[in-house]
Write a structure and sequence with these properties.
single chain; 332 residues; alpha/beta; 27% helix; D-amino_acid_oxidase_CS
């Protein structure tokens, strides 16, 4: 294809993983990331980062969706031994009172090294929650507080550049330079940029607490999760579809605290570090597709909801493949 210049709009985990994949697959490519928020200012930084996609997560079709999850899992697996990157193996439970199927995960069962049913005796020993069903599995924790700086550093080592700025219309792209193609990884910003009404905020609220003794994760019904991290544990949560409220809600706080301490009573003594609210970019089907906008080649890559960490290394491969095909179709 020869030398080409690609602009990536968005510096969250989707944008960074896309930029790294472009550098990996396209020889002599120049990649510039343009964003108005970086690192701790991104939605990605607020993510707990446990590698377990929800059953409703969807790409273009079931086969591609599973490929994204598989590719992403193996991507992080290959990085797990690098120090300071924010990746580690983690094990824990999925718990339910409603049904056995609520503790299963079609994406994970054939992928992770351990995924088994929990018997009644083990359930009784977990907590006083009267859980009727449970599964135990091993997976990975990818904490963006460590991963995002590592990804930015690798991107720059590969010759990538960062520019601070934002676009409200694709007609403004030329303000940042001449690009052969644009990767649109703007997350929730794509709702206005693309007039995409299928993209909606999914509000999430969590506690960060100091609980270094916590060594397992717990996922339960009603969007309840307890996830040990590197420097703090995450207690959650909420899934408020269509809510743009970024303020901490005291009623959500009370509900989260009650649900999590019922599962692990010792958390009642864990010092609270802070409470956080983030707006996940939810779309019923993640958008990964090409478009020509006023002669500009664009690959849309957004709408991962709460699963950008879990799926973006895989979906970035699909997005990069589309970009390569678009570039081949030009004089390049």
């Amino acid at each position: 294809m020869g030398d080409c210049h690609i602009g990536v709009f968005g510096s969250g985990i989707v944008g960074l993983n896309t930029a790294l994949e472009l550098q990996k697959q396209i020889r002599n490519v120049k990649v510039t990331i343009i964003a108005d928020k970086f690192l701790e200012d991104t939605t990605s930084d607020k993510a707990a980062g446990i590698f377990i996609p929800a059953d409703y997560f969807a790409g273009p079709n079931p086969q591609i969706t599973q490929e994204w999850i598989d590719d992403s899992y193996h991507y992080y697996e290959a990085l797990k031994d690098e120090s300071g990157i924010g990746i580690k193996e983690i094990s824990g439970y999925i718990l339910a009172k409603s049904s056995w199927t609520a503790t299963r995960n079609r994406f994970m069962e054939g992928l992770v090294p351990v995924f088994r049913t929990v018997d009644d005796d083990e359930l009784a020993s977990i907590s006083p929650g009267d859980w009727k069903y449970g599964s135990y599995l091993k997976t990975y924790l990818i904490e963006c507080r460590g991963y995002l700086p590592w990804a930015m550093h690798r991107f720059k080592q590969n010759g990538g550049q960062f520019v601070t700025g934002r676009i409200d219309s694709f007609s403004e792209v030329e303000n940042f330079g001449k690009f052969d193609l644009i990767m649109n990884c703007t997350g929730l910003g794509a709702r206005a940029l693309c007039n995409d009404r299928r993209l909606t905020p999914m509000r999430g609220q969590v506690y960060k607490v100091n609980a270094p003794w916590l060594d397992k994760f717990y996922l339960a019904e009603h969007t309840t999760y307890i996830i040990p991290g590197f420097s703090a544990a995450t207690l959650g949560g909420t899934k408020n579809y269509g809510s743009w409220n970024t303020a901490v809600d005291k009623y959500d706080s009370a509900s989260i605290w009650d649900r999590c301490t019922r599962i692990v009573p010792k958390l009642t003594t864990a010092p609270v570090i802070k409470e956080i609210v983030g707006l996940r970019p939810h779309r019923d089907i993640v958008r990964v597709e090409p478009e020509i906008i006023n002669g500009l080649k664009v690959v849309h890559h957004y709408g991962h909801g709460g699963y950008g960490v879990t799926s973006s290394p895989g979906s970035a491969k699909t997005a990069t493949g589309i970009a390569i095909n678009m570039l081949k179709g030009s004089k390049l």
